[in-house]
Amino acid sequence: MSDTLTPISPWDARAQKQVDSLLEQEGIRRDGNLDYTCGLFDEDWKLAATGSCFGNTIRCLAVDRGRQGEGLLNQIATHLMEVQTARGNTHLFLYTKPQSAKFFGDLGFWEIARVENSLVFMENRRRGFSDYLAALEKTRREGLSAAIVMNANPFTLGHLHLVEKAAAECDTVHLFVLSEEAGPIPFPVRRRLVREGAAHLPNVICHDSGPYIISSATFPSYFLKDEDTVIRAHAALDLEVFGKIAPCLNITRRYVGEEKASRATALYNEEMVRRLPELRIECRVAPRFALEGRPVSASTVRQAIHQGRLEDIRPLVPETTWNYFSSPLAAPVVEAIQREKDVIHY
């Protein structure tokens, strides 16, 4: 049997329909974040296997049940790794079902963390995660150490309030800014605004999250049955990874902001409150900072920018954030926010 391995165009409706059908057969939903898809077709152009990429991750792998055992998954995975290498992505990640972890181990991937009966998070560097932990350990401090993880998209008075509360109650605060791009405000800008906004707090240490603290934009949902399961699995995996980070930095407390408006964030916080004590880490949920009775959120700031009401963000953000957005330097970012269709949910 002669098979053809080829990229699948987003506009190839017939092939895309076959991809959806094959994924569904394997209990997989098409992931919302894909930037490359390929397929292995037989002589009649019936799809026998498929796989996709997003950023530096590999995802949505499936083989027709009638063709399993022929090494097709190996061909797809090898092709996707070659595509990533051609893109300049040499540090690769994937999420897979536990029963498939050994297969990817044989392809040169190592396990970072797993959620039993749900998923395994893997990378193609033997010492990738351990080197990350070793670098973090250099910033370890004695005394009560806490952690905060945030997108800071952008950094608001709400974020600052949470950081100041933690800094007042702890000897050291390790502040992780999510490195993955999850919207029109680039990571270097978000990191800069966090560092400038918290510069007056000498016991706050800012860290890039790197690829190991996973944002909701890149967490895979395609082999989980419903949205609540996705959120809980995301939180569980995040906490499995965080449970390995915390001892390196002497972290025994994590601060999160209270969430009433977003069901997703509320579920995530619920999982943290439940699971963190199992890791001997206290979880403190701080009331959301409010002005005139209204919670201050990054979504509100983005919405004001989106609607051309830049002046309205001034009372909602630290002076350092306002100085950036009111400067010519921010013009490309402001334009990017204004082009977005939905500025509320990332």
Features:
11 helices; 346 residues; single chain; 14 strands; globular; alpha/beta; 5-stranded parallel β-sheet
Structural summary, described in words:
With 346 residues, the chain is an alpha/beta fold. It has helices at residues 13-25, 72-87, 101-106, 128-137, 157-169, 187-197, 227-245, 263-275, 298-306, 319-325, 331-339; strands at residues 4-7, 36-41, 47-54, 57-63, 93-96, 110-115, 119-123, 145-150, 172-177, 204-208, 251-257, 282-286, 290-291, 294-295. Strand 2 (36-41) and strand 3 (47-54) form a beta hairpin. The protein starts with a strand and ends in a 7-residue tail after the last helix.
Short summary:
With 346 residues, the protein is of the alpha/beta class. The chain has eleven helices and 14 strands.
Write the layout of secondary structure elements.
Layout: E1 4-7, H1 13-25, E2 36-41, E3 47-54, E4 57-63, H2 72-87, E5 93-96, H3 101-106, E6 110-115, E7 119-123, H4 128-137, E8 145-150, H5 157-169, E9 172-177, H6 187-197, E10 204-208, H7 227-245, E11 251-257, H8 263-275, E12 282-286, E13 290-291, E14 294-295, H9 298-306, H10 319-325, H11 331-339
Parallel strand pairs: 4-5, 8-9, 8-11, 9-10, 11-12
Antiparallel strand pairs: 1-2, 2-3, 3-4, 5-7, 6-7, 13-14
Helix pairs in contact: 7-8, 9-11
Helix and strand content put the structural class at alpha/beta
- The fraction of residues in strands falls at 15-25%
The tally of helices reads 11
What share of residues is helical?
A: 25-40%
Low-confidence spans: none
- Helix and strand element order: EHEEEHEHEEHEHEHEHEHEEEHHH
Strand order of the largest sheet: 1-2-3-4-5-7-6
Assembly level: single chain
Shape: globular
The description of the largest β-sheet is: 7 strands, mixed
Rg over CA atoms, rounded to whole Å, is 22 Å
Mean residue pLDDT: 89
Number of strands: 14
N-to-C CA distance: 46 Å
